[in-house]
Write the structure tokens for this entry.
Amino acid sequence: MKTYTDEIKGFLKSEYGKALEDASKQEIYYALSKTIMSNIADQWNNTKEQYGKEKQAFYLSAEFLMGRALGNNLMNLNLYHEIQDELKTLGIDLNAIEDSEEDAGLGNGGLGRLAACFLDSAATMNLPLNGYGIRYDFGMFKQYFENGFQKEMADHWLKYGDPWSIRREDEAVIVRFADCDVRAIPYDTPIIGYGTNNINTLRLWKSEPVEPFDFDLFNAQEYDKSVALKNRAEDISRVLYPNDSENDGKILRLKQQYFFVSASLQELVRKFKKEHGKHFEKFPDYLAIQLNDTHPVVAIPELIRILVDEEHISFKKAWGIAQKTFSYTNHTILQEALEKWWVGFYRELLPRIYEIIEKIDKHFVVELKELGYDKTKIHDMRIIKDNMVHMAFLAIHGTNATNGVAALHTEILKEQELKDWYELYPDRFQNKTNGITQRRWLMLANQELSSFITELLGDESWGKDLSQLKKLEAFINDDVVLDRFLAIKKTKKEQLAEYVKSVEGVELNPNSIFDIQIKRLHEYKRQLLNAFQILNLYFDIKENPQKDIVPKTFIFGAKSAPGYFRAKGIIKFINEIAKLVNDDKDVDGRIKVLFVTNYRVSYAEKLFPAADLSEQISTAGKEASGTGNMKFMLNGTPTIGTLDGANVEIVEEAGLENNYIFGAEVEELEAIKESYDPVAIYKSHPRLKKIIDTLIDGTFDDEETGMFKELYDALLKDASWHKADNYFILKDFDSYVHAQSRVDQDYRDQKEWAKKCWMNICGAGKFSSDRTIVEYAKDIWNIKRIDV
């Protein structure tokens, strides 16, 4: 009987001309991945065939933060341990093979990771959902630190090839811009469900030139000019989120958005015609398209363009079809993050699309006038106003559903940020609280805890029904169970410490509290507040060297956008604090600070299971949902956080007494925002003043970049675009410090602490992306389960 090892050997021979014993880990990874691809091919094709007969949903997203594929796919196919054992007999460690895989870092944070979880869940729930996005040659960037400053280098995730994707040259389409045409080449990646025959598809488009180069110019020895068009075409899919501080960068971003949206819609229209002819009135009966944030919202006018210009349907009918086909997920409360485009970019790059948006805007104005809206309200709600195209407004107007991603977030949208729109379209607004896939974030990332849960529950069916975790409450007073949980947590902390030592060269104490804040670096997520309370603890120890504290290790992981000066200043500040604290003999290992380099999915898989405390400290009312909070919870980690985003629902499920909530709530901040005076707090609070003054008094060195002075000013001086301390760091400081001292006290009673952790696991059932995706399928897309 042919084994997987035989197939791996065959691939090594054909691809590399090597025997297994001569192959590198990377080559074995490639051969094993290709073996799995070969074995699932028929299943994948069967899924596509069966989906084509029914209504399907399509998820359009600029980001899919997939992470590594091998381990997740082996686990979902129930092959992980079989392959692990087979390789072990040959002296090969599967974990080492997994580590040779590059992260598919095609996302920036929660938005892209959510998209990845949704695809996994849809396949597992046998729902016909496929993803569309861009196959970036380079992910966001690889991060490293130089003297504490963030530095970026190219993330060439494809340098060894990608065994998990198939190039479909025969299904390429042409995407037309005003200045050039490009070819969109699809690459398909299988999305393997857990415990099912269904295999869904993520299709990513790569931009290539229509002609590889200008042969005449090359012959004339004008080598650079001969490939200029090729380079411009390839730039579109070269890098995730290119820096857009200048106009050229902005235009490239707009090109990226239109590129993948146009390619996807052209294909969907072509496939619809093949199955159903030109009966486009039935288009929404067979397709539902979800717009993940505003990046793909240009899909609305693009579908209208295709239907009107190429299929000769009236504008009115095309508009009706578009509205019934599309739905929109809003991911932000921050006004500055609601995407807007200068009309000049649209006119220059996509003149026909701009004409259509103008027409939509004019029709909308007529609609509002007929409803009796006054001029001021109409101006406020216009899709094109003040020479900007407001993509969120176009999204709400041009779709059948708008959803927020946590209960609090949706209420804030309805009551504050999008109040006018909610009053206009109350039936279109919904909530779909985010979720995460328990397969990657518990079954793969924490196999020790996963096996223990299976042992207690009797089988692995919780892998497809996370609500079963509620049954674990029966063990809340079982000392044997709690002791085993604590032993598993210790194991995960030791594993993380070992990994950190090997990649960062830093020693961590697994007996300390691992207090972890890992998420994108943004002011509203308040990594700066965390940094301030670390300094507060440090000054406490300096003033009272005998102070009794539980040793704490503060771990940060985050990337700042390359052009985000203030966020980069916060990273430098935290690294300066680490240098001060870690080198101080008075502290003597009682506090340690580490900012891990190049935070990514595969690093996260090691960090979440090892955490003792989950930092979710955003300003109340600013975080739409969060999903890191759910990953911590699932791995048995209490939250220290504000009542923001999904924290509200986490506390409802796991109990307020099992988490550490602090800080002002949304209503209080709304009431005081006009009268708030951070300078008064600064002047009346000697310790907080001392901490903030470290930004300017020479305690820390920002090497004359002005970063620290800029942070200082942001806290204490009004600026043209925001008020002083607009994220209320000074306001929440004392409350946060008090919550941290409660953690210190409670952690000393390990049995009671274990109960808090355990209740978080028991309450995590709601936060599976399986639940979220089933809600989308039922309430928005109207698609049904298809068993392949």
The chain has a mean pLDDT of 96. The chain is about 50% helix and 15% strand.
